[in-house]
Amino acid sequence: MQIFLDTVAPRRNGENIVMILDGAGWHSSGKLITPANMRLLPLPPHTPEPNLVQHVWDELREK
Fold first, then answer.
1. C-alpha–C-alpha distance, residues 20 and 22, integer Å
2. CA separation (Å) from 21 to 24, 45, 47, 59, 60?
3. Is the separation of the CB atoms in 40 and 19 below 8 Å?
4. φ, ψ dihedrals at 31, nearest 5°
5. What is the pTM of this model?
6. How far apart, in whole angstroms, are the C-alpha atoms of residue 42 and residue 20?
7. pLDDT one-digit tens code per residue, 16-63
8. Which of 22, 28, 23 has its CA nearest to residue 2?
9. Residue 6 to residue 44: CA distance in whole angstroms
10. Rounded (5°) CA angle 40-44-50
11. Is the separation of the CB atoms in 43 and 18 below 8 Å?
12. What is the dihedral of CA 44, 47, 16, 53, to 10 degrees?
């Protein structure tokens, strides 16, 4: 996750990024260093339909 954050942040230098995180363990590590232009926003537990993009992936897999 740290590698991902470190890769995305400089590519969007000068922009503010809000990254929405699900409950994956690597999203909540206390060792993550959040880049200055990024804010990590965890979803609350038991959020209904937290990943609407998943429906797109399901559709692509079927075809």
1. 7
2. 8, 11, 12, 22, 23
3. yes
4. -90, -5
5. 0.63
6. 6
7. 999 888 877 777 778 889 999 999 888 887 766 656 666 777 777 777
8. 28
9. 25
10. 85
11. no
12. 150
